[in-house]
Amino acid sequence: MTILASSIMRRAALCVALFVFAPCPTMNAWFKFVPVAYAKMRQDKLTVVPAGGGPEHAFAIEVATTEREKALGLMFRTELADSEGMLFPYSAERPLQMWMHNTYIPLDMLFIRADGTIARIEERAEPLSDRVISSGPAVLAVLEIPGGAAARLGIKPGDKVRYPIFATTVR
Predict the structure, then answer these.
(1) Among 13, 44, 62, 155, which residue is least crowded by beta carbons within 10 Å?
(2) How many CA atoms lie within 13 A of 132 on its CB side?
(3) What structural domains does the chain harbor?
(4) Could you tell me the pLDDT band of residue 167, with boundaries at 50, 70 and 90?
(5) Other C-beta atoms within 10 Å of 55: how many?
(6) Is 0.85 surpassed by the pTM of this model?
(7) pLDDT digit string (tens) for 108-139?
């Protein structure tokens, strides 16, 4: 048998196995995570404005609006640039909890009030941790950015986030 024929037969056997075992929950669970690792949500931009003046910081963000998108978040991602992030907006201010389950990269979590003020920052949240990370005060949204980016960019509690959901007077 030639190498090409052998390769074709192996691929055909794999396809048959996947078809036969597709109804099997264990096999489904094993293959299920691959596509969601690269799922992209709605793209947008937001800006962080330092309270004490200085350069503003623009971020290209993904917006997790549905419960499914919020549950997935940045799970399974292996990289995130300093100018990228994910926003988790909610319909009303409330205390929020986040975690790092299946999240491979450290993240900074910026907890944002309805007026756009950053209330608290959880720096360098530990990858793959199931520890609950609380917002503390009631907030309207959470912005996740790469771990250490808040410190590198000088982002602090009290800074403002400019984005349409926030009732802010920052220009």
Answers:
(1) 13
(2) 6
(3) 3-35 (no CATH), 41-162 (2.60.120.1140)
(4) confident
(5) 10
(6) no
(7) 999 999 999 999 999 999 999 999 999 999 99
